[in-house]
Amino acid sequence: MSAQERVTDNQPRHVSSSSILIWAGRSLTGRQVVLLALVLSVLVMIAHRPLIRSAGGDTAVYDYVAQSILRGQVPYRDVVDIKFPGAAHLSALAMFVFKPFGIRDLIAVRILNVILVALLEIIIFLVGLAYLGRIDAAVIGLLFPLMSPRFLDWMVGGTEPKLPLMVFGMLTLLLIAWDRPFWAGFSSMLACLCWQPGLMFTGVAVLIFSRYLTSWRDLRALKALAGAAIPLAVTFGYFYLRGALGDLWAWTITYNYSVFGPMAERSVSDSLDHLYKVTSRVLDGNNLVVIASIIGFAIMLVERITMKFKPGDSNRSTELFKDAILFPPLIYFVFCLINFQAGPDLIPFIPFVGIFAAKAIIELCLQLQRIKKYPVLWDVAMPRLAIVVMVLTVLVRAVTFRPDGGTIAEQDKAFKIISENLGPNDQIYTHGTTELLVLFNKPNLSPYVFLDYGADDFAASRRGVDFNQIIEEMDAKSPKIIALSRMKVVTHRGDFKNWVDEKYTPLEVPGYDGIYIRNSN
Q1: Which phi and psi angles does 145 have, rounded to 5°?
Q2: φ, ψ dihedrals at 214, nearest 5°
């Protein structure tokens, strides 16, 4: 019996395995729910204006890396980044596919994100169905991300590595439930190649398919490892052939482990406080759902632990796969205690919040149903009510949404003064203001577009020079325009300041500070 069939068998008797809501004799099948989820997610994303929103922040950095790939540059050697390259290559692929249609690079990436969010919604639904065994619970799970304006804002700004991370990560959980070890391993490594914490999905796949490292003879765990090894080997082989494997390792592993991690580390109490404050701010208006998700996680954790103490070999249970959904949010929570920076770091939690909130709602309904004096079928009526409320919330928030910040057209207008001062052979150096490079589709003077948390000293140490020598080398190329921002945690920000004070004059660009033009003398 397949995992998918087991899920169907676990459906409550009064809820059809192929329907969700039945009113006036009409029902929605699982396939119809998938189609509706696809349409709803696309419409909600469009409501967040992905095609006009201004570029900036970390997403502009990854958009720039994607453009660099299309120019033939190699990440980590020609443009420095500290995350694995999967997301940037996906964006580069989108740029390549849409370019013949005259679609601008920025827009191509946003179209890709709309598609990825729609895929994520469908996968969340299928994961909820597989692990909770009820279509109504699965629908509750898929609706939560669409209820979160901040999450959708992060999705429309440009390349966001955590989005494909969760697409492949949730797909891994689905493939575990469907007992597809090779493809679960393959998908898990794609998640990791988008951002390093995605390795947790590979660990979960191996743990479940090996039945907690107790069974290897059926080769399922080895198949998962083989699946994971292929994309990793292809990636390392590509960078080896391009002469950049050492750069890849240095910036994604060595720097993160030995420099960034220690410098960004907080105490556990400070991390918890920071995590709480950011979560409260980002998920404002969804607090009840978050609380319900914590309760749902605890309920499922107790259920799975209780199974371990029942007679027989629990590791041989046909429901062992259900343990898999508990590990990623738990592991990622531990990761956040070590290194949690800002709101977008909450993205990997978002799919799980809805699923575990659905678990809490279903369990509450089942408990109410057991109270004989209440004749209402609580476990049918209450989930339906939750779905109605959530759908209405999604629609109201989408219709009333008003984006903060500017538009791409406004940025183009603001940067016009820069383009008027640039000759065909003039170069630009930017630190932090990477949207300037993205909008101009122009390479940076230097590989170093962002040098926070000791990256400047790490870059110098890899070359065996003082950082001032790197600045001198850049100055020798006489960049016409310099744009400096996000310098707060740059060790050598004083050296940058001295450079621009000596050789440059501030250029008035509407909405931007820290842009300079080289003195004529």
Answers
A1: -55, -35
A2: -105, -10
CB 111 within 8 A of CB 155: no
Q: What is the CA angle 364-394-332, rounded to 5? A: 65
Residue 143, both tokens: 């609706």
- Residue 54 · residue 408 · CB < 8 Å: yes
pTM of the prediction?
Answer: 0.91
Please name the residues in contact with 334: beta carbons below 8 A apart, sequence gap of 6 or more. Answer: none
Both tokens of 514, joined, read 């820290």
Give me the torsion for CA of 425, 52, 120, 161, rounded to 10°.
30
Helix (H, G, I), strand (E, B) or coil at 372: coil
Neighbour-count burial of 106, counting CB atoms closer than 10 A to its CB (0-12 exposed, 13-18 middle, 19+ buried): buried
CA distance 190 to 233: 12
CA 358 – CA 429 distance, rounded (Å): 49
Q: How far apart are CA 74 and CA 77, in angstroms?
A: 6
257-305: pLDDT as tens digits: 999 988 888 888 888 998 888 888 887 778 888 899 999 999 999 999 9
Helix spans in 309-377 (H): 327-338, 350-369
**For the sheet containing 481-484, what is the strand order?**
428-431, 481-484, 515-518, 504-506
Q: Are 42 and 114 in contact (CB under 8 A)?
A: yes
In tens, the pLDDT along 311-328 reads 765 666 778 999 999 999
Q: Evaluate whether 220 touches 182 at the Cβ level (below 8 Å).
A: no
Tokens of residue 67, six digits: 């453009």
What average pLDDT score do residues 58-81 get?
Answer: 95
Identify the pLDDT of residue 313. 58
Q: Where are the beta strands (DSSP E) in 362-441?
A: 428-431
Q: Which amino acid does the sequence have at 213?
A: L
Asked if residue 156 lies in contact with residue 45, where contact means CB atoms within 8 angstroms, the answer is yes
**Pair 127, 174: CB distance under 8 Å:** yes
Window from 4-13, 15-24, 117-126, 491-500 with minimum mean pLDDT: 4-13
- Single-letter amino acid code for the residue at 397: R
What integer pLDDT is reported at residue 406 of this predicted model?
Answer: 86
The DSSP output letter for 252 is I
Closest CA to 40 of 394, 347, 388: 394
Classify the C-alpha dihedral 467-249-435-398 as positive or negative: negative
Give the dihedral of Cα atoms 202, 204, 206, 208; nearest 10 deg.
-150
Nearest to 140 by CA among 357, 292, 392: 357
Q: Residues for the chain: how many in total?
A: 521
On the question of pLDDT at 380 being above 90, the answer is: no
